[in-house]
Amino acid sequence: MNYQPITETAASSAGESSAIIPANSDVYNILLLGNDSRADDTSGRTDTMILVSINKETKKIVLTSFMRDMYLYIPGHDGYQRLNAANVYGGVSMTEATIEQNFGIHIDRYAEVDFFTFINAVNSLGGVDVTLTDADIKEMNLKMQEVNWYMYHDDSHLYDHNISGGAGDYHLDGAQALAYCRMRYVDDDFGRTQRQRDVLGQLWGKTKSLSPVKTYLLMKNVLPQVTSDLKGGECLKLLSSMIQLKSYEIVSQRVPAKGTYSDKVIDGMDVLSVDLPQNIAILQDAIYGD
What we know:
This protein has 290 residues and is α/β, with parallel strands linked by helices. It has a domain at 4-114 and 228-288: Nucleotidyltransferase, domain 5 (2-Layer Sandwich), CATH 3.30.420.590. The protein contains ten helices and 13 strands. The chain has a six-stranded mixed β-sheet with strand order 10-7-2-3-4-11, with helices on both faces. A three-stranded mixed β-sheet has the order 1-12-13. A hairpin with a 2-residue loop joins strand 12 and strand 13. Helix 3 crosses helix 5 and helix 5 packs antiparallel against helix 6.
């Protein structure tokens, strides 16, 4: 891949983006953040950023992955950096402000999960099904060692949950699903975020067969492990609307969209230089449009 070194001024031709946010009371946006729980510093760079947009008018739930290497203006930091650096400079609030100002999307609430929460959620829903290549299995087993160390802090468990077969269809438990969602060297970060959205879509599909009682028990089991600014009344409202939401169509996308970015090197960093006007239009149409 050819990289073209450029200056910050050249990369920032759009200026300090302040995109207009559509007014639509039928849309509810929750920013789902995944943090790398291996680090003791909770203000580290966010590993995963997925916006879950619930549109009551279109009856769609849009899952949008925000690529962490996008080179964006960071409000409050007074400069440009990779998107995932916003959490280092100012926590979740700065990450939210960066997405809102650059892409014109209002974020109502956030939910942050760590490795344990993800593993618990997947196990509570009975795991996920995936198709793996030989290359997938090789990298996944390497990631599995990291997950096992996090879970047990014991070298004797490093190879627990490893995939021992060849290419084919597999049913993954929570720990394996985490390794699957974290691998990216088999392809790239775009492939990684696609796997994350695929797993989320599967998990959501599994909730459709749950009875109201089992749905309540699932929420009661998982929600206490989630760091969020969702208030108690809002959680109850979401819980009460679960039956209705189960009929909504799931739409999956990423930002930047294909063909709307270029690979650059800025100040020695490999980044994604984004065409903001194109991505604002694509994102807002998917979330707020028909």
